[in-house]
Amino acid sequence: MRKKFVAGNWKMFTDRAGAKKLAEAVVAGLAGDNRVEVALCPPFTNLETVAAVLRGTPVALGAQNCHFENEGAFTGEISPLMLLDLGCSHVILGHSERRHKMGEGDALINKKVHAALAAGLKVILCLGETLEDRQGNQTGLVLKKQLEGSLAGLDEAKLERMVLAYEPVWAIGTGHNATPQQAQEAHAFLRGWIAQTHGKPAADALRIQYGGSVKADNAESLLKQPDVDGGLIGGASLKADQFLPIVRAGI
Ligand code: PGA
User: Fold this and answer.
1) Which of 100, 133, 200, 206 would be a feasible disulfide site paired with 129, CB 3.0-4.6 Å?
2) Is 35 inside a domain boundary?
3) pLDDT value at 107 more than 90
4) What mean pLDDT is reported for the chain?
5) Does 188 score more than 90 pLDDT?
6) Domain tally for the chain?
């Protein structure tokens, strides 16, 4: 049985005071309940603030990106070791906003995945098709290409510290979530690919989150699909009273 995993991706929102309040409200609302795994992923500048709130609680701390080297002359970048030093256990990589707005491709994402895992972080790897891909019946091809590229060179042991997040680009921040059937179909496709490349035990153990306009009122129908193991939540993770019901939908 895979434990459900719900992560809040705060994107480029919150200042330190707001981040502290939001993290405190999430921790208080969960009241130590760890039936669903929860991670909060604030912007880099608020990691230390949120780390102090989460210390000693079951809620994990994640970052939203990292570089593929642990140190060096890379102005403006943050390394996996720096994230660990701040108390992060997780990092989101390959988010569609980085793929499409910052020009990140699978080869770069793959280097980051290797570096993050080698440093000891767990990775939430995002993938998903655009509206154009879907309308052109290219969803399977696009997902396969992203899997092949981003997961290149990763064995079953490494996969154990990874989570996939299926995030159809057309559903992110648009208010148009995938239907539970569309999500289930894509998740089953991803798990099937992993079964073929890394074996059935690895595929059965792998958690696949759904992301894209998950809200309190659609979370339950999405999370009860057999291959949907949680959610990566953007907009609705910025308010504790919207995020907490999504976590509870996973119980
Ligand atoms: P959304 O974002 O929930 O605001 O659609 C999800 C994400 O980008 O991870």
Assistant:
1) 133
2) yes
3) yes
4) 98
5) yes
6) 1
Structure tokens at 82: 């720096």
The model's pLDDT over 44-103, given as tens digits with 9 standing for 90+, comes to 999 999 999 999 999 999 999 999 999 999 999 999 999 999 999 999 999 999 999 999
Per the domain annotation, does 33 fall within a domain? yes
Helix residue ranges per DSSP H, the chain = 16-30, 47-54, 80-85, 96-101, 106-119, 131-135, 139-150, 156-159, 180-198, 200-205, 216-223, 240-249
Residue 218 in contact with ligand 1 by CB distance below 6 A: no
Cα–ligand 1 centroid distance for 9 (angstroms)? 7
d(CA 236, CA 72): 36
Which CATH number belongs to the domain containing residue 103 in this structure? Answer: 3.20.20.70
Ligand 1 close to Cβ of residue 36 (< 6 A): no
With a 6 A CB cut-off, is 173 part of the ligand 1 pocket? yes
Residue nearest atom 2 of ligand 1, based on CA coordinates: 234
**pLDDT per residue as tens digits for the range 190-211:** 999 999 999 999 999 999 999 9
Positions annotated as catalytic residues are 95, 167
Residues 6+ apart with CB under 8 A from 87: 47, 48, 51, 54, 55, 61
For the record, the structure tokens of 170 come out as 């057309």
Asked whether residue 173 is assigned to any structural domain, the reply reads no
Question: Containing domain of residue 132, as a range?
Answer: 5-164+190-207+230-240
Question: Of how many residues is the chain composed?
Answer: 251
At 1 the pLDDT is: 85
* Residue carrying the six token digits 């995993």: 5
Q: Give a yes or no: residue 178 inside a domain.
A: no
